[in-house]
Amino acid sequence: MVPAGTSATSPCGTVSTEEAAAFYCSSNETIYMPIAGLPESWTEGRPLNYLSVFAHEFGHHVQGLTGTLTEAHDRRREAGGDTPAGLELTRRNELRVQCFAGMFIESIVDSGGPFTRPDIDHTRRFEYSSGNDSPTHGTAANIEGWWVRGIRNQIADCNSWSASSAEVA
């Protein structure tokens, strides 16, 4: 869904573009990405940035189809959602889809379409080297690192569940 305005309402709640550029709602298996309010570089000057966010959210849909999203939510609930263990489980889940996003971006760069290697390099630097650390998504270095793992295009590289705690901090 690409709702008008700067927020999206779903069965999972309402989120504004100030809170998140996009989100996946597993209740209705839908990605919500309101365009209004996003930086121009995501929607006009550098559309690969926007596609990378979409690919991240689609990764959550893939997790939903395979059952890993439900498993991650169940484990987080058992550990206590806002405990250090619960937050680490959330980061493992989020960083795995960062890797999926990198895989998607790699698959469309230099494939005859409009995106080339300089675009992928710009997206990596712009979107993932911002210096924003998050208790639920990881350090900026790990967010970028898992995305870069994805551009190596090896699904086994996306196994955040077997990574060390430092790799998902």
UniProtKB/TrEMBL annotation:
GO CC, any one term: membrane
Membrane topology: Single-pass membrane protein
Entries under InterPro entries matching the protein: Uncharacterised_pept_Zn_put
Compartments reported by the entry: Membrane
Keywords: Membrane, Plasmid, Transmembrane, Transmembrane helix
Domain of life: Bacteria
PANTHER family linked to this entry: INNER MEMBRANE PROTEIN (PTHR30168:SF0), PUTATIVE MEMBRANE PROTEIN YPFJ (PTHR30168)
Name assigned to this protein: Metalloprotease
Source organism of the structure: Mycolicibacterium arabiense
